[in-house]
Predict the structure of DUS-like FMN-binding domain-containing protein.
Amino acid sequence: MLKSCVYTRFASLTPLHSNIHNNHQRVCFHLLSERLPQSRKLSSHARKVKATKHKNQLESVKHAERYHPPWFSVAPMMEFTDNHYRTLARIISKHSWLYTEMVVAETLVHQQDNLDRFLAFPSEQHPIVLQIGGSNLDNLSKAAELANRYSYDEINLNCGCPSGRVAGHGCFGVRLMLDPKFVGQAMSAIAAKCDVPVSVKCRIGLDDHDSYNELCEFIYTVASHSPTKHFIIHARKALLNGISPADNRKIPPLKYEYYFGLLRDFPELQFTLNGGITSIGQVNAARKQGAHGVMLGRAAYHNPWSTLGCVDSSVYGEPGVGLSRRQVLEQYQQYCDSVMGNNNGSYKPSLRLMVKPLLGLFHSEPGNGLWKRKADTALRHCETIEAFLEETLDAIPNDVLNSTISRKSSCGEDDFADVHSSLPFPYRIREQEMTQSLTVNFKSLEDI
């Protein structure tokens, strides 16, 4: 299927762990795959429009094949992963997959005369994934159609945000996990209006709906009712009892064993691990144990040099960009100058917004504290990024500014070593179906 062929390539390059599969499970999964609804392979609407979209899909797949698989990605974060941060991230790493902030479907539908503000991005940001949110099928479908013009490499539906404005008043985000059939319908509606793969980002559960079987039921239902083949799993449940989104990233315990259980029970799907991972060493440790891909959030934003700077060489085995921080700042200044010079009366970002992604560039380095204090003062009167850098960079020693990116991070390399010893019991529905299928087969053999 064209919509997911890029992930076929992804799967072919993914390390497998010998403990994940055994003959018993392979028989079960083979028998189950023969009975999956046709919508699992291609939605009925997608089949009807396949001929007319064939050319665009081929071009999209050809475009995506230029990139490495999403072994490493930067999480979608509201008020963080905007165009400015993504530009800085791409200067530091050429192969990381970047996600946008979540864009609410209704915003796109009601702002059709101003779509560039929400959807436009420099071509250098590929590979890039658009995350959308919403709970209205018509608006999600229309939003995907509008976004399709901008040539994102994937469209992702937010089923994991625990914010009160989203999961509470908005009735979407992580609350969608309570209605997996609707999510399957939504993913089919989105897929029918775009020429790229679609994916879901979710938690492992919410409130009291936090068992492994409930998570599996969500995955199974969505994948059975849509072309969705890729799930990003935040390995914490969400609590919707009034705690903040920040506390929802800390209080619920991490259950990485749920993620690795999904690898075992759904080998035909692709899963990216998210939550609690802060170093490239941990990324490589997770992939060594079979993780298809790993997503970092705050660590990639607040310490981009030590995280993104190691991705190309340590995760993808490619040469790093070989830039110093000074050179990174020079390229970023060129971007900022182009943004400020080409606004043509449209939305003009503030200097503070463009400086914001830089505030983690000198994380834990000598002079970092002084530089941030000078930055706070400079932002009160500087009007250009050039003036800002001239006024503040004398706080950072030259050896820090001129040093290039370290090749490897070893922190966390032993993490996940024992995760396969604590996996949850296999998904019971699949176990039951396997047992039933084997019973039927044995009965047929006896009849013969």
